[in-house]
Amino acid sequence: MSDHEMMEKEEIFSKVLRAGRRTYFFDVRATKAGDYYLTITESKKFTNDDGSFHYKKHKIYLYKEDFAGFTDILNEMTSYIVDEKGEEVISERHQKDYQKSYDTDSSVEKDEKVSAESFTDVSFDDI
């Protein structure tokens, strides 16, 4: 195991947000130089035809020099949506994320099946 892999696995500070079938992991990690950066991972649970589960994951890397800009835009976007549409949820389209339903009618999800094992993380060195 390389030094980077050791650091990548080291838990410095982590928080989890569970939202239906989606879970968001916020993790503070260390660079080789000993500085900190943030990763945000979205993990979405899918039900296979046989009743077993698999997860699709997406990860965002956020570095200190981008914190202010990222936060500004995120706040601007969320404020815009609430100002335009209020906080009440209008759309039903995302509701399936909150139900333990078996999505047999969605051909898109079937085509995109990826197991958690085959999810390859982008290492810090590749960025």
TrEMBL record:
Gene3D superfamilies: 3.10.450.700. InterPro entries: PUR-bd_fam (IPR006628). Keywords: DNA-binding. Residues 91-115 have a biased composition (Basic and acidic residues). Residues 91-127 are annotated as: Disordered. Belongs to the PUR DNA-binding protein family. This is PUR family DNA/RNA-binding protein. It comes from Aquimarina celericrescens.
